[in-house]
Specification:
Number of helices: 10
Pfam families: Choline_kinase
Oligomer: single chain
Shape: globular
Number of strands: 11
Organism: Danio rerio (Zebrafish)
Pathway: Phospholipid metabolism; phosphatidylethanolamine biosynthesis; phosphatidylethanolamine from ethanolamine: step 1/3
Structural class: alpha+beta
Strand content: 5-15%
Enzyme class: transferase
Largest sheet: 6 strands, mixed
GO molecular function, one term: ethanolamine kinase activity
Length: 307
């Protein structure tokens, strides 16, 4: 299977708690989870902070005291997000990455979400990842993901096009709300146009011979955490998937480098060379080189094309 994720033998089991958290009135449900995960915390002293950067889930930080030194993150799944996020695969991804020290600790799952460790630091902005002092760390951390070997000699196949096809199957053709329907027709390319672009991408990218590795697949700036120890973490692992290594680089590089323009799949999923200035090409090549150095240093075998 293209999306086969194997949890290493000996990985700690993840408890499943029979708790449902209301995303609008979450305190009562979150306290039930905290009672199990942190039994020494007094419920009356538990403080909660809602993080607002996510668009598909509600993320709540639970802690006690005046500072957020020990925080339990409670992620409540958004309505119908299971249609495009494989929740079983997400838990497996957490466990795989945790075994390789690439992810925060996963404390438990519950009926409509999961709880995991809070990593201290700040979420990055596009201007941050242009800093050589920071993108070196990003390249190193990405290489750790990409160097995780497939299980028992299995040769991974890219799951990118299957995943994109699944996304396309969920795209609505119209909305009942007139204003939303007008925006869909006026501002979003037609499904036929987007499918043509996806076919173009598949035909062109598949010829490049880019190695298929385990990829993060969601390396937006806000999903990269930078801490005072001058290191970065990539805590979000909803979309872990085997696919061509080059397509994972675009998530981290292109948001900071692609100029404004019409929304098309070739702009969102792949940076065409014509979109990049000389300075941007230099940045991309430097980032690419740093990644390959770290990738090979971690023991990944095979020919990596660098031209």
């Amino acid at each position: 299977m293209a999306n086969y994720i194997h949890v290493p033998d000996g990985s700690p089991a993840v408890p499943k708690l029979d708790v449902t958290v209301d995303e609008h009135d979450y305190r009562a449900g979150a306290l039930k989870l905290i009672k199990t995960l942190r039994p020494h915390w007094k419920p009356s002293e538990v403080k909660m902070k809602t993080f607002t950067d996510g668009i598909t889930n509600k993320l709540i930080g639970c802690y006690v005291g005046g500072s957020m030194q020990e925080v339990v993150l409670v992620r409540v799944y958004g309505n119908k997000t299971e249609l495009f996020v494989d929740r079983e695969n997400e838990v497996k991804s957490f466990r795989v990455l945790q075994a390789h020290r690439c992810a925060p600790r996963l404390y438990c799952t519950f009926n409509n979400g999961l709880c995991y460790e809070f990593l201290q630091g700040v979420a990055l902005e596009p201007e941050h990842i242009r800093s050589p002092a920071i993108f070196r760390h990003i390249a190193r951390q990405m290489a750790k993901y990409h160097a995780i070997h497939a299980h028992n000699g299995w040769v991974p196949q890219s799951g990118l096009w299957l995943k994109m096809s699944k996304f396309f199957s969920l795209v609505p053709s119209h909305f009942e709300d007139p204003e939303m329907d007008q925006r869909l027709n006026n501002e979003v390319p037609s499904a036929a146009c987007l499918r043509d672009e996806m076919i173009w991408l598949q035909q062109n990218l598949s010829k490049l011979g880019s190695p298929v590795v385990l990829c993060h697949n969601d390396l937006l700036c806000k999903n990269i955490i930078y801490n005072q120890k001058e290191d970065v973490s990539l805590p979000k692992s909803l979309h872990l998937l085997h696919r061509a290594i080059a397509t994972d680089w675009r998530c981290s590089v292109c948001p900071a480098r692609t100029p404004p323009g019409p929304v098309t799949t070739s702009r969102v999923f792949f940076c065409r060379p014509t979109l990049l200035s000389n300075v941007n090409q230099t940045f991309f090549c430097f980032f690419f080189t740093l990644h390959i150095i770290n990738f090979k240093a971690l023991g990944m075998q095979g020919n990596i094309k660098t031209h």
